[in-house]
């Protein structure tokens, strides 16, 4: 029997990759539901291919199709997640330091983790300032480079990795009214500030956020912490104060996480 061709051998892996992409797209939807035509467009797939993959995901309980609202993540995702926690849980380790930062700044504090070409919100802690910015909820996903948290992570990556990420997420950036060129400029600015990412009204209108990367023991960027507040509260002098507190928080997390 002749050996399988290279393209045939790669086909199952390609299918798995496409299915995973569809799940990430569904998860990144703000309302957690998308129509078939929306998913196909965001995945750069023809409608029939996307439909076949989605039908299989529904069959495996990885996705659910609502006739009115469209597709959302299925119950098997939750069930698998219950046993997928790493040995060292970054979210758990970070909690006391995130609470301290929220109390010290009075503002909303977020922990986001890196998930492939995206960031995912792992934790959200409210401060005591009367106006809190609910820009993200736990489980929200966005392309790396969007928002202070995702920008901080992306700016900490190698240039070759950055190019691959931007190529992968480019079809989704239009929804955020942002371009790869703007993200590259923001990366240069972030590196010029020693790794401090600042997003002033791009990810959320009238909201300014300041983020910094959390590295693992090998200095790979695995997450970030950012503080968000209304723009008029985040003046230059206060940004400096928040940055100092943010750096202390991240340093403390890294010390325990390592």
Textual characterization of the structure:
With 258 residues, this protein is an alpha+beta fold. The chain folds into 2 domains: 6-80, Winged helix-like DNA-binding domain superfamily/Winged helix DNA-binding domain (Arc Repressor Mutant, subunit A, Orthogonal Bundle), CATH 1.10.10; 90-257, 2-Layer Sandwich (Beta-Lactamase). 48% of the residues lie in helices and 19% in strands. The protein is built from 9 helices and 8 strands. The chain has helices at residues 6-28, 36-42, 47-59, 75-81, 90-105, 147-155, 159-173, 180-192, 236-257; strands spanning 63-66, 70-73, 108-115, 118-125, 141-143, 197-200, 207-215, 221-230. The protein has a 6-stranded antiparallel β-sheet with strand order 5-4-3-8-7-6, with helices on both faces. A two-stranded antiparallel sheet has the order 1-2. β3 (108-115) and β4 (118-125) form a beta hairpin. α1 (6-28) crosses α3, α2 crosses α3 (47-59) and α5 runs antiparallel to α9. The longest helix has 23 residues, at 6-28. The termini are far apart. Residues 1-9 have low confidence and may be disordered.
What's the layout of helices and strands?
Blueprint: H1 6-28, H2 36-42, H3 47-59, E1 63-66, E2 70-73, H4 75-81, H5 90-105, E3 108-115, E4 118-125, E5 141-143, H6 147-155, H7 159-173, H8 180-192, E6 197-200, E7 207-215, E8 221-230, H9 236-257
Antiparallel strand pairs: 1-2, 3-4, 3-8, 4-5, 6-7, 7-8
Helix pairs in contact: 1-3, 2-3, 5-9, 6-8
Order of helices and strands: HHHEEHHEEEHHHEEEH
**Percentage of residues in strands:** 15-25%
CATH architecture of the largest domain: 2-Layer Sandwich
The gyration radius over C-alpha positions equals 19 Å
Supply the CATH superfamily name of the largest domain. Answer: GAF domain
Q: Considering DSSP H and I runs of 4 or more, what fraction of the residues is helical?
A: 40-55%
CATH class descriptor name of the largest domain: Alpha Beta
How many discrete structural domains? 2
Shape: globular
């Amino acid at each position: 029997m002749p050996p399988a061709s290279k393209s045939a051998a790669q086909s199952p892996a390609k299918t798995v990759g496409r299915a995973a992409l569809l799940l990430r797209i569904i998860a990144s939807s703000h309302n957690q539901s998308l129509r078939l035509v929306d998913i196909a467009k965001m995945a750069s797939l023809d409608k029939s291919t996307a439909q076949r993959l989605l039908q299989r995901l529904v069959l495996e309980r990885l996705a659910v199709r609502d006739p009115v609202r469209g597709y959302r993540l299925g119950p098997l995702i939750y069930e698998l997640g219950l046993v997928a926690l790493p040995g060292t849980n970054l979210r758990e380790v970070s909690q006391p330091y995130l609470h301290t930062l929220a109390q010290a700044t009075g503002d909303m504090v977020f922990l986001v983790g890196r998930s492939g070409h995206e960031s995912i919100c792992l934790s959200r802690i409210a401060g005591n300032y009367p106006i809190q910015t609910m820009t993200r909820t736990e489980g929200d996903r966005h392309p790396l480079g969007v928002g202070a948290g995702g920008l901080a992570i992306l700016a900490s990556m190698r240039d070759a990795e950055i190019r691959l990420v931007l190529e992968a997420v480019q079809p989704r950036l239009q929804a955020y009214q942002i371009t790869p060129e703007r993200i590259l400029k923001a990366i240069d600015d972030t590196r010029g500030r020693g790794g401090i990412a600042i997003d002033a009204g791009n990810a959320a209108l009238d909201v300014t956020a300041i983020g910094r990367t959390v590295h693992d023991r090998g200095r790979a960027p695995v997450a970030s912490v950012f503080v968000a507040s209304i723009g008029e509260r985040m003046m230059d002098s206060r940004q400096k104060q928040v940055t100092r507190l943010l750096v202390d928080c991240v340093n403390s997390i890294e010390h325990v996480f390592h």
